[in-house]
Design goal:
By secondary structure, this protein is an all-beta fold. It is built from no helices and eleven strands. Strands 2, 4, 5, 6, 9, 10 and 11 form a seven-stranded mixed sheet that branches. Strand 5 and strand 6 form a beta hairpin.
Length: 116
């Protein structure tokens, strides 16, 4: 079955950096684009970034463009999200998502807290 397992969330000070990982299994990783989303407490889920199957194309929400970088390692079946210049409003649970066989699959999420 499809599994996505995120890790790397932590407490970080404003202006700091963090790296998130999402290890995937149960589908043909090299055929799928992947995405990162986030959900802050009391708010709707927000799309953060996308990466194409071959990694050549990336897309970002306006709120994170220039600060976050999405990448992938197809040999390791892993997608990454590097978070730089973090702000308090980046505090959220971060999820990776894949669409496979017309279904959306989500990981369990990893908590990022930006606070001094």
């Amino acid at each position: 079955q499809v599994q996505l397992v995120e890790s790397g969330g932590d407490l970080v000070q404003p202006g700091g950096s963090l790296g998130l990982s999402c290890v995937a299994s149960g589908f043909t990783f090299t055929m799928c684009g992947l995405a990162w989303y986030r959900q802050a407490a009391g708010k709707e889920c927000e799309w953060v970034a996308d990466i194409s199957a071959d990694g050549d194309y990336t897309y970002y929400a306006d709120s994170v463009r220039g600060r976050f970088t999405i990448s992938r390692d197809n040999a390791e079946h892993t997608v990454f999200l590097k978070l730089n210049s973090l702000k308090s409003e980046d505090t959220a649970v971060y999820y990776c998502k894949v669409r496979w066989n017309q279904n959306d699959y989500w990981g369990q999420g990893t908590q990022v807290t930006v606070s001094s």
